[in-house]
Design a protein that fits this description.
By secondary structure, the chain is an alpha+beta fold. It contains ten helices and eleven strands. The chain folds into two domains: 2-157, 2-Layer Sandwich (Ribosomal Protein S5, domain 2), CATH 3.30.230; 165-281, Alpha-Beta Plaits, CATH 3.30.70. It starts with a strand and ends with a strand. Bound molecules: 4-diphosphocytidyl-2-C-methyl-D-erythritol 2-phosphate and adenosine-5'-diphosphate. Adenosine-5'-diphosphate binds next to α1 and α2. 4-diphosphocytidyl-2-C-methyl-D-erythritol 2-phosphate binds at residues 12, 15, 25-26, 28, 98, 100, 103, 134-136, 151-152, 177-178, 181, 248-249. It catalyses: 4-CDP-2-C-methyl-D-erythritol + ATP = 4-CDP-2-C-methyl-D-erythritol 2-phosphate + ADP + H(+).
């Protein structure tokens, strides 16, 4: 049997850090939503009891370091599954970009193998397994739009943004999430997002309220280490985007737009100095 699973990218509408935990991770509070820029994962039964991973990406590992491999291996070892799987990953999401591409691949693998192997695991069970692979995986299991807390494991679905687009711009630099959290001193954070206001704006389908409340406390750190990302954000604001924010630990910066007539102007302006630009729909 063959199964295709879609693994969409996420963007952060808010990202707050509330403290540092005893396990070394940070206590976060963030609102994440999915966008229509997706990897595609093909899962096929394999006679031999092994995990074979192939990908069209030349820059990510296809061995046990890949989050897809980790997801399949974790499922097999937790439930003593003696079956094998052949996985093909069509990589479309930029890597190490703050878009959770790897986490979404891992989540899609868990969802897909749950079907392929008839495991009947609930979303909660898949989320619990996902949390062992990475902090963003539990959200990627459910997708949509959610308030995410803890290290990333407490996921509460909320209302999705009204129909619209995100223009994603990624400079040719890779940002390590570990480095950005490592350079953050959470006690020095001067301004925090108003998460409650963002939730109200989402409930009210209030696009202006959403754009006004976009805020990410990691911007300050990433902008300090990579000033070109700050410059990129300023440029996009200058093109007349409604709201602009860095996603996750960066370096991807996105603009939210709800009028089709504005898309071309911002896209064309950006293409002048940023090669990797994507115009994508917000997913519901
Ligand atoms: C910043 C965010 C926002 O969505 O995403 P990205 O920018 O990576 O997409 C997440 O918090 C990242 O999640 P994820 O990329 O899954 O992180 P993990 O692999 O679990 O952790 C990588 C490293 O980041 C740090 N980390 C991660 C999550 C967290 N709540 N606190 C942390 O301090 C830890 O140092 C950890 O070793
Ligand atoms: N399936 C995968 N897709 C992307 N990156 C992966 C994958 N598996 C492992 N990685 C590794 O995870 C790191 C971060 O990947 P990614 O999820 O794209 O970034 P981010 O967390 O910033 O969104 C990269 O260094 C990459 O080599």
């Amino acid at each position: 049997m063959k199964i295709w699973e879609k693994a969409p990218a996420k963007i952060n509408l808010t990202l707050d850090v509330l403290g540092k935990r005893d396990d070394g991770y940070h206590e976060v509070e963030m609102i994440m939503t999915m966008v229509d820029l997706s990897d595609r994962i093909l899962l096929e039964d394999l006679e031999d009891d092994q995990i074979i991973l192939e990908t069209n990406s030349g820059i990510i590992p296809n061995d046990e370091r890949n989050l897809i491999y980790k997801a399949a291996h974790l499922l097999k070892s937790t439930y003593q599954i003696k079956k094998g799987v052949r996985v093909f990953l069509e990589k479309n999401i930029p890597v190490a970009a703050g878009l959770a591409g790897g986490s979404s691949d891992a989540a899609a693998t868990l969802r897909g193998l749950n079907r392929l192997w008839n495991l009947h695991l609930t979303s909660n069970e898949l989320m619990e397994l996902g949390g062992k692979i990475g902090s963003d995986v539990p959200f990627c299991i459910v997708g949509g739009t959610a308030l995410v807390k803890g290290r990333g494991e407490k996921v509460t679905p909320i209302v999705s943004p009204p129909p619209g687009w995100a223009i994603l711009a990624k400079l040719p630099i890779s940002v390590s999430t570990t480095d950005i959290y490592g350079a953050l001193n959470w006690q020095d954070i001067k301004e925090h997002p108003n998460t409650d206001q963002m939730i109200i704006a989402l409930k009210d389908h209030n696009f202006d309220g959403i754009t006004k409340n976009l805020f990410n406390v990691l911007e300050e750190v990433t902008f300090r280490l990579y000033p070109s990302v700050k410059y990129l954000k300023e440029q996009i604001e200058g093109f007349g985007a409604d709201g602009v924010l860095m996603s996750g630990s960066g370096p991807t910066v996105f603009a939210l737009v709800n009028k089709e007539s504005r898309l071309n102007r911002i896209y064309n302006g950006l293409r002048g100095f940023c090669k990797e630009v994507y115009v994508v729909r917000l997913l519901r």
